[in-house]
Amino acid sequence: MRGEAVSVSTLGTTWTPMSPAQRDQFERDGYLILPGALSPDEVGRYRAAVEAVYRTKDAVGRLAPDRSLHLLSAVRNCPELAGLIDHPAVFPLVWSILGWNVHVYHSHIDVHPQLPGPKPAWWHWHQDGGRQNRELETDPRPRISVKLAFWLSDVSRPGRGNLTLIPGSHRTNWLPGPPRRDLAWPQPDGAVQITVEPGDVVFFDRRIWHARSDNLSPVTRMAVFFGYTYRWIAVRDEVADLWRQPWWQELSPVQRQLLGGAGDGSGDHLWGHDPGSTPLYRELAARQLLDPGYPPLIP
User: Fold this and answer.
1) Which molecular function GO terms apply here (predicted)?
2) Residue-level pLDDT at 269
């Protein structure tokens, strides 16, 4: 765990819901791109924090053989990133889709330097959720979660480790692929590499079929991903003792909710039994942003 908290609540300006046009596009394509969501200063600050984590892991031999880093539990390992979880430019998209009874269930820091050449064949295409995609029987499966990808490096050209996805595939349960993951296989029809600038954010439905492409450029790929789901779904991140950390009390109530906080004696419950004691519900109610026409936001 890194020692110092560098977290300031950003929720004070997160009061603009997803627009009807954004909702229509998200439901159609399964993702949105938010250009310039982070300011250049924010990009520099968060990038410096990620670089420090990378150096620490490098010093203790925790990088992959290709010198990449895929580190789960982003805020636990880098408290300086806490300001991203309710960032005003993009967090409204999360509660506009999932509602107020949410938390971050899965997050990761990704750093991928240039590869010397393409990696051996491996079928990386997947939907987020793991066993959910085998154990839920509906077609299409329920959305359940959404993800924010904060880009701290320039992936404005293909071949830089771009997020690759198939627009509109979030309503498709199965993707034709090879009989074994290690067989060479053509890219799926309709696959596109998402090209974005540092500070851009990609918001996507966990069901969209996606993969990470190889980074064959001299630009180190750097991004932070946060996955949000309902609080009655188990957290994958390591959060059990976050409340013991010295920086925990510096977080806002909503940030603590998003990082697993509950059961503080006020009635808050992961199942949302007492909405009035749930921090995000209270904030949205105070701003009259609870929409009775949309089930997750019903007062």
Assistant:
1) dioxygenase activity
2) 85
- Confidence band (pLDDT; 50, 70, 90) for 6? very low
User: What confidence tens digit (pLDDT) does each residue in 37-77 have?
Assistant: 999 999 999 999 999 999 999 999 999 999 999 999 999 99
Contact 184, 243 (CB under 8 A): no
209 vs 31: CA distance, rounded Å: 11
Tell the residue number behind the tokens 């596109």, with chain if given: 192
Sequence ranges of the domains in the chain:
11-297
Query: Is the CB of residue 223 less than 8 Å from the CB of residue 106?
Result: no
Neighbouring CB atoms inside 10 A of 4's CB total 10
64, exposed or middle or buried, with CB in 10 Å at 0-12, 13-18, 19+? exposed
Task: Give the Cα separation of 197 and 191 in Å (integer).
Answer: 20
Q: Which residues of 136-174 are buried (b: 16+ CB within 10 A; e: fewer)?
A: eeeeebebbbbbbbbbbbbbeeeebbbbbbbbebbebee
User: Which residue shows structure tokens 């957290």?
Assistant: 235
Mean pLDDT of all residues belonging to the chain = 93
pTM of the entire predicted model: 0.94
pLDDT tens-digit series, residues 8-19: 344 445 579 999
Q: Which helix (H) or strand (E) holds 51?
A: helix 40-59
What pairs with residue 146 in β-bridges?
205, 228
Of the candidates 31, 29, 39, the one whose C-alpha atom is nearest the C-alpha of residue 199 is 39
Asked if 35 contacts 200 with a C-beta cutoff of 8 angstroms, the reply is: yes
- Residue 13: what pLDDT? 55
pLDDT in tens, 93-109: 999 999 999 999 999 99
Fold of 11-297: Jelly Rolls (2.60.120)
How far apart CA 235 and CA 228 sit, in angstroms, is 10
